[in-house]
Amino acid sequence: MDHEVLVIGGGSAGYAAARTAESLGARTAIVDPGPLGGLCILRGCMPTKAILRSSDILSLIRRAPEFGLRPALAGADLAAILDRKDRLVREFADYRIEQLKDPRFTLYEHPASFISPNEIRVGDQVLKARNFIIATGSEVAEFPIPGLREAGFLTSDDALELREPPASMIVLGGGPVALELAQFYLRLGVRVSLIQRSGHIISSGDEDMARPLEERLRAEGMQLFTGTRIIQAGRTEAGRHVTFEHGGEEKSVTGEVILLALGRRPRIGGLNLEAAGVEVEDGRVRVDASLRTSQPHIFAVGDVNGLQEIVHIAILQGEAAAHNAVHPDWPAKTLDGRLNASVVFTDPAVAGVGLSEKDCHRLGIEYLTASYPFGDHGKSMCLGETHGHVKLICLPGSGEIIGAHIVGPEAGELIHELICLMYFHGTVFDLARIPHYHPTLAEILTYPAEELADKISAGN
């Protein structure tokens, strides 16, 4: 056997799996054809957050009179923004490459393809392993919109490389990637029209979490259409256009470019999973709670299993799969989905952990909820960041917090107090009693906690 654990993919999930397997004493290899670094570093989390910082600062500068400051002329140099982004990404990627090329591992920089359940072809070699961990990530998904391919479109990868902003942009999609890039280009002066199929943006969450962001985007000048059905796309000398049904009417928007941001799909092309006997369901590698595929010695972690396309969860999956591969006779490590969290890095940001109200209705869980607006909170008023609110969801009897959601300033940072509290099965009584410094944004969390604690104490 060439290796005890062979990891296919060197991104966040793959590296976490390899690092864990090696630390447990397994002879470990990584297969990745490159470019090395992984989606998060090269085309996802890090480059988007780098460019969003620029547009956020630009937005604040333009608000100078609101804070008693003399107006300042501010414009954007997209090429310079991308140069900064590229420097940061290179630094992050160099560090990851250094980790992947650590002599603790064997690194094969070639595509991998299964030729049997225990063998893969890597370049001109055939490698055998006792266990495999598939961590090949995801790729931009295309959707069958009539005329879209002929009209031409940008993907999120392309949008991160534009060195000259287009005059106008049509964005298809209302998820995190679509919203972050749409607001970035909007703040750079691009005329943006966004078309979302569902009744509100960030459709997997509760409607009240989406509305404050929708209001901000419209106030900043975005044309935002929700509850639509896209009919077709096309291209004329005047530019590209998308026709859609909205409010019972047929409408059309035009733009210089179309950004397709309707989602991603697991990257499994070329793996020849059929030869390995690995089952695929709805385009994703099917796994059980221990991250095993239909072949008990083959695992799948991260975006490729389609469970939740979040980097920190991918890392946790990689670590758990490696443990389960190296110690198959030990109790299997599984993940606590109770603490699944998400953040959309828009302005205002949207963050959540645990169950939403939608989830509670779907699962038949009784709950209590309370919210409090940033518009009535002292620190957020001082900051001039009054869009949005915080919301807690708890069990009616014990007051244990089972969900927490924030749309507003620093939501991605504030949510971590609630993740920590939920980790220890904390209650609204705990949150209400925990001292919070005044004035801070964090103390807003205590207000809905106090309301719920009073409601439970009074017998609901």
Give your account of this protein's structure.
This protein has 460 residues and is α/β, with parallel strands linked by helices. The protein folds into 3 domains: 3-139 and 265-335, FAD/NAD(P)-binding domain (3-Layer(bba) Sandwich), CATH 3.50.50.60; 148-262, FAD/NAD(P)-binding domain (3-Layer(bba) Sandwich); 338-457, Enolase-like, domain 1 (2-Layer Sandwich). It is 33% helix and 25% strand. The chain is built from 15 helices and 23 strands. The protein has helices spanning 12-23, 39-42, 45-62, 78-100, 148-151, 156-159, 176-187, 207-219, 273-276, 311-326, 357-363, 378-383, 411-423, 428-433, 446-457; strands at residues 3-8, 28-31, 106-108, 112-116, 119-122, 125-134, 138-140, 168-172, 191-195, 223-225, 228-236, 239-246, 249-255, 257-260, 264-266, 280-281, 284-285, 298-300, 341-344, 349-354, 368-373, 389-394, 401-408. The strands form 6 sheets. Strands 1, 2, 3, 4, 5, 6 and 18 form a 7-stranded mixed β-sheet that branches. A 5-stranded antiparallel β-sheet has the order 19-20-23-22-21, with helices on both faces. The protein has a 4-stranded parallel β-sheet with strand order 10-9-8-14, with helices on one face. Strand 22 and strand 23 (401-408) form a beta hairpin. Helix 3 (45-62) runs antiparallel to helix 4 and helix 3 packs parallel to helix 7 (176-187). The longest helix has 23 residues, at 78-100. The termini are far apart. The mean pLDDT is 95.
CATH top level of the largest domain is: Alpha Beta
Distance between the termini: 62 Å
Overall geometric form: globular
Reported CATH architecture of the largest domain = 3-Layer(bba) Sandwich
State the CATH superfamily name of the largest domain: FAD/NAD(P)-binding domain
Q: Based on DSSP secondary structure assignment, what is the total number of beta strands?
A: 23
Q: Tell me the number of structural domains.
A: 3
| Helix/sheet category | alpha/beta
| Total helical segments | 15
